[in-house]
Amino acid sequence: MTVPEDFEIRARETTAVQLTRMEGKLDLVASQLSDVRVVVARHDTDINHLKAMTQQLGSDAINRELTVAATAKALASSEESRRVAADRRWTPAMRLGAIVSLLATALSALATAYIAAHG
Q: Which of 31, 94, 99, 119 could pair with 90 in a Cys bridge, judged by C-beta atoms 3.0 to 4.6 Å apart?
């Protein structure tokens, strides 16, 4: 079998065409990789932003729990203070009883003094 004379010429042309196609494909792949790099960079920025937001939410949750605990403690202390103040406060019945006792004691002292004087 003999090789045609133009085989080498065609082979060189075919190789050049194939190299041009491959170069085009490589350029396309390079362009797509460049686009992917931009998207990855954007995602990296978004992820860092989400991490910062998550940390802030965690800090806010801890602060909220501390505020709730402090508020509960303050309410308990306030309730205890109110209860103690209510226990120390004289009710109207207690005031009336004290006045009646004072009047009875004064009348008793006056009666004793009168009896002792007029005998």
A: 94
